[in-house]
Amino acid sequence: MTTQPVLFGAVEAGGTKFVVAIADSRGEILARERFPTTDPPATLAAVIAFLRQRGGTSGAFGAIGIACFGPVELDRNAARYGFIGRTPKVGWSGTDIAGVLAREFSCPIGFDTDTNAAALAEHRWGAARGVDNLVYLTIGTGIGGGILVDGAPIHGLMHPEMGHVYPRRHPLDLSFPGVCPFHGDCMEGLASGPAILARTGASLQELDAAHSQWQIEADYLGQLCALLVMTVSPQRIVVGGGVMSQKRLLPLVHERMRHWLGGYIDRSEVVSQLDRYVVAPGLGDNAGVLGALALAMDAAK
Ligand code: ZN
Questions:
Q1: How far is the CA of 167 from the centre of ligand 1 (A)?
Q2: What is the whole-number distance in angstroms between the Cα of residue 6 and the centre of ligand 1?
Q3: Which of 6, 103, 244, 267 has its CA 20 to 30 A from that of 184?
Q4: Is the pLDDT of residue 58 over 80?
Q5: What is the pTM of this model?
Q6: Residues 71-110, buried b or exposed e (16+ Cβ, 10 A)?
């Protein structure tokens, strides 16, 4: 009699797309698929169908990990644990994700925010290997981040939402109201992809290197990184997301971050080695789904 190999399911639940994958116990991805996020019943049905079809005849998983767009309820004692909270994503507020998959597959479910999961993946396999205290930031359609302390994501009241803190306004950007539906000119309202588009009618990559938007963007992100150094004291900050795919942005962020730190932190990491301290992701677009895999592996322990 042969024993079935242990399989893990990984679900990256994003606001615009879902990525689902199946991996073995070594973390090798055996199958993956992506589809657009539509309404909750149709999208979750597609997730379940993929896991059933590709998960082997038994359809049994060691565990399934879900890296979910937020806000989400992470308190295991809460009635709405595993639910999506109030989100601008139409139709998704109050959707139960973890419970649906737990009932369908009767296996342990790992559940966390997409950014906490990406932080876990970068810690395990990517640009933050070897450090246990780190921040993962994503700068794209929104701005969010995950924080690991001693290798574990911070939860607490809910989960960090550092994309919604208020930066000091850049002198060339005093009149733009910002695009955050909750705060207007918070970090996400001023420095996300949609903010750049609303301000200039273009994406960053379409703007000439001399355009002031590059300086404005770098300044806000430099403020956010400096704020994180002061509040969280991470050993590394990994910055990903669509806006950061413009490679020339990161050195500008380093420059502005150094400015906002004001010489106060006397450590070589932030004085002379910022290029190794605030870094691009090592896993690229795979951080989300690999984060979900990390959650699954941890849930199975
Ligand atoms: Zn906001």
A1: 11
A2: 41
A3: 244
A4: no
A5: 0.93
A6: bbbbeeeeeeebbbeebeeeebeebbbbebbbeebebbbb
Three-state secondary structure call for residue 64 = strand
Contact 178, 185 (CB under 8 A): yes
- Domains of the chain, first to last: 7-116+285-299 (3.30.420.40), 130-281 (3.30.420.40)
Task: Give 179: exposed, middle or buried? Use CB within 10 Å, 0-12, 13-18, 19+.
Answer: buried
Distance from residue 43's CA to the centre of ligand 1 (Å): 27
How much distance in Å is there from the Cα of 93 to the middle of ligand 1? Answer: 17
- C-alpha 161 to ligand 1 mean position (Å): 9
Those residues whose beta carbon sits under 5 angstroms from the ion ligand 1 are 164, 180, 182-183, 186, 188
H-helix or E-strand spanning residue 136: strand 134-139
Residue-wise pLDDT for 214-239, tens only, equals 999 999 999 999 999 999 999 999 99
**Are 158 and 71 in contact, with CB atoms under 8 Å apart?**
yes
For residues 164 and 154, give the distance between their C-alpha atoms in angstroms, rounded to a whole number.
17
* d(CA 243, ligand 1 centre) in Å: 17
User: Rounded mean pLDDT of the chain?
Assistant: 94
pLDDT above 70: residue 4 = no
Distances (CA, A) of 201 to 190, 212, 214: 14, 14, 14
Whether the per-residue pLDDT at 3 is higher than 70: the answer is no
CA–centroid distance, 166 to ligand 1, in Å, is: 8
Amino acid identity, residue 148? L
> What's the 119 CA to ligand 1 centre distance in angstroms?
21
Distance 132 CA to ligand 1 centre (A): 28
| Mean pLDDT confidence for 22-51 | 94
